[in-house]
Amino acid sequence: MIGILVMIAIVNPYMMLTTLFCGSFMYILTIIYLNTAQAIKRLEGVTRSPVFSHVSASMAGLFTVRACGAQDMLRAQFDDKQDVHTSAWYLTLVTNTAFSIYLSLFSALYVLIVAYTFLLMDDGTTKSGDVGLAISQGLILVNMVQHGIKMTTEVVSQMISVERVLQFTKLPQEAAGGPPAPRDWPQRARLVFKDLYLRYDREAEPVLKNLNIVIESGWKVGVVGRTGAGKSSLISALFRLAPIDGHVYIDDVDTGEIALKDLRSRISIIPQEPVLFSASLRYNLDPFDKYSDAEIWKALEQVELKQSVTSLSAEVEAGGANFSAGQRQLLCLARAALARNRLLVLDEATANVDPNTDALIQKSIRKHFADCTVLTVAHRLHTVADSDRVVVMEAGQIVECGHPHDLLQNENGYFAKMVNQLGSASEQSLREIAQKAYLQHIKYVDADDHAQ
Ligand SMILES: Nc1ncnc2c1ncn2[C@@H]1O[C@H](COP(=O)(O)OP(=O)(O)OP(=O)(O)O)[C@@H](O)[C@H]1O
Fold first, then answer.
1. 20 to 30 A from 349, CA-CA: which of 5, 10, 134, 174?
2. Pick from 125, 141, 150: which is nearest to 15 by CA?
3. 223, 227, 168: which is closest to 191 by C-alpha?
4. pTM for the complete prediction?
């Protein structure tokens, strides 16, 4: 470009004025266009996300949509969102085209002035070869400038996408917590909740109110209560997923004073919806490649899945679709068995499986996690009937706590009333399970006393 400009200046020095005039106009035009293009690009990005979310939500709930015959409703919703996005996209195309037209007009004007300057200011010495050279080079110059401006504006407006990604890096981050936890912590997994309050929002009323409870090492504790009683919030407090007031101690270590990463990696949890990746079975059980094949097979054997699995390289489909709900939970249990943490939490883990699989999972836990402290949040009361303790929650508070058999003796108690509502057959079987567990518990305590 500089070479062409020098050549034109040698042939006709007045052309520098024209170049400066047209160049300034193109510059002003570019600045105006860039501001508009960036704003529109931002708008286009914001209106595009709802289209994608709607498509992925519709795909995820395809069976429900078809079962309810809601295709037309979803299609109409999709069209609305796409219309909004198309409006923004149309604005992008229109402004881009308008900008190109104005650029072309200025380029044509420049070549026109170059040509007419030679005509009008001819003093008889201009050579026709010079004129031809200046016009042809002028045409090349304006093409270069147009292309350069278009590419620059394209890059600057595409940078809006980078800006949107960078916004995520500025989200407020969770504090990392204190120093690393001791290496072999927790050894006993004795849990103490002391004066515990939990709020999801600093301004809101506490969801957990003044919780005080000690869970001894190795106890299997069931947490029950009505919907919204705060059972899952108790788990959130344990993992420090929400800000808490008060203290949670595990083996006398305040969980608020150690690194969050350590705290969360030392507690195993089996959630209601198991998380499985579309990868090999081995990757699903041991994503960080920490254990040998023999250890993984042993864990599968412990949860009685060894027979159902042919190879560790077998593929698990997205969300574990090629496994039954119970098997998915057992895979999570195998993961917990591999991690060998002393504290295991089950958050309504067996809500979606049939009572037999529930019993199998509970049996496996009693057998292979015998030394671990296990906290089981359950809606199905039979799941926790043979626990060492049952904690009954109501409106964010612990209203009852004790051995299920003891709690059932108090007919006006919360637990006994919940059991009453099951119907006489279920109530009878639950009472029998609790009594059997109680007798075993007594036998165990007696044997322990005798040994001492
Ligand atoms: N992420 C959250 N943000 C704000 N409030 C929440 C949040 N999670 C739960 N809550 C509120 O906390 C209270 C207790 O909810 P929690 O999920 O602990 O109950 P739950 O006993 O586990 O219920 P469920 O048996 O239905 O799972 C409810 O009133 C709920 O509205």
1. 174
2. 141
3. 223
4. 0.72
